[in-house]
Write a structure and sequence with these properties.
Elements lengths: L4 E5 L8 H11 L3 E4 L30 H10 L5 E4 L2 E2 L5 H14 L4 E6 L4 H6 L7 H17 L5 E2 L4 E2 L16 E3 L5 H10 L2 E2 L2 E2 L2 H18 L7 E2 L2 E2 L7 H10 L4 E5 L4 H15 L2
Parallel strand pairs: 1-2, 1-13, 2-3, 3-5, 4-5, 5-8, 8-9, 9-11, 10-12
Antiparallel strand pairs: 6-7
Helix pairs in contact: 1-2, 1-9, 2-3, 3-5, 6-7
């Protein structure tokens, strides 16, 4: 069986058109295509950037809308899975986000992977209405609301953060339960518990192979404790920029517990990204 390899495009803008990039990735045999999210970025913030606190990259404030980019990718593809890597859920109104996600899933015939997170930038989050100190509580309720909207004909909700009377929300996603919910974040007992209790996948950023392997062991233990089959959780780590460019890299990550490896595309122009995809396919998709 061929290994599952996905690709992550950090800046799916006009210079590297997601319609062409995703189409090329599909033609070459890649399994999934992912784009990130930051709706805004304050000019000044005290929060430490999780990637490198001393070096905040410009692309954080240049990202197009996740669901518009994935919709563009959906229009030119037929098979490749389309993932949010990641959607900062509590920064959204769940009624509007449910409509966006369901619409892309509807148009793509059920190819959306709903990668989620709660955010790291307090200032960004609070501008967008997040209860930052309890952001995972808010995230869980937001996803609960979305799942109601996807599954029910006339859902209503009366919760801590969201309240609304019976209403209609269409189109529905391909699966009544909605797209698979996949958690970002590094391995920890807390994230593993979330994955096991209300998710279908784990998509951590892989800062080191040892850390990822330890997270896989924690996930295995959490599944065993909950009586859940580990095979029901799709594990697909995101490699950092410039990482995992050889078969040997790929095989080490798969051996550590990954079901799929998501590779960060480093090129910034459409033609250059296409060249990079061809090189990666030759090396990785055997």
């Amino acid at each position: 069986m061929k290994p599952k390899i996905g690709v992550f495009q950090i800046l799916p803008d006009r210079r590297a058109d997601p319609a062409i990039v995703a189409q090329t990735a599909e033609a070459l045999g890649f399994h999934s295509y992912w784009v990130p999210e930051h709706a805004i970025m304050p000019l000044a913030f005290a929060s430490d950037y999780v990637g490198d606190p001393g070096n905040v990259p410009d692309y954080l404030w240049q990202m197009p809308d996740t669901w518009v980019a994935l919709s563009r990718a959906a229009a030119t593809t037929e098979r490749i899975l389309l993932g949010s890597g990641i959607c900062l859920v509590p920064e959204h109104n769940p009624l509007l986000l449910a409509k966006q996600v369901a619409s892309v899933d509807h148009y793509s015939h059920g190819r959306v992977l709903f990668g989620i997170g709660a955010g790291w930038n307090r200032e960004e989050s609070e501008i967008l209405g997040v209860d930052f100190d309890h952001r995972w509580t808010q995230t869980r309720e937001c996803v609960e609301v979305m799942r109601k909207l996807w599954a029910e004909d006339a859902p209503s909700h009366d919760g801590r953060y969201y309240k609304f009377p019976p209403l209609r929300s269409y189109p529905k996603p391909e699966c009544p339960a909605g797209p698979p919910v996949m958690f970002g974040s590094s391995g920890s007992p807390r994230v593993c518990k979330r994955v096991v209790t209300w998710g279908q996948g784990w998509i951590p950023v892989m800062s080191s192979l040892d850390e990822f392997a330890a997270g896989c062991r924690e996930l295995e233990a959490a599944c065993a404790a909950a009586g859940r089959d580990r095979a029901s959780v799709h594990v697909a780590p995101f490699t950092l920029e410039g990482q995992c460019r050889t078969r040997a890299d790929r095989d080490r990550i798969l051996a550590a517990g990954a079901d799929e490896v998501i590779i960060w595309l480093v090129a910034k122009e459409t033609a250059a990204v296409q060249d990079e995809l061809h090189q990666l396919a030759e090396e990785m998709l055997d």
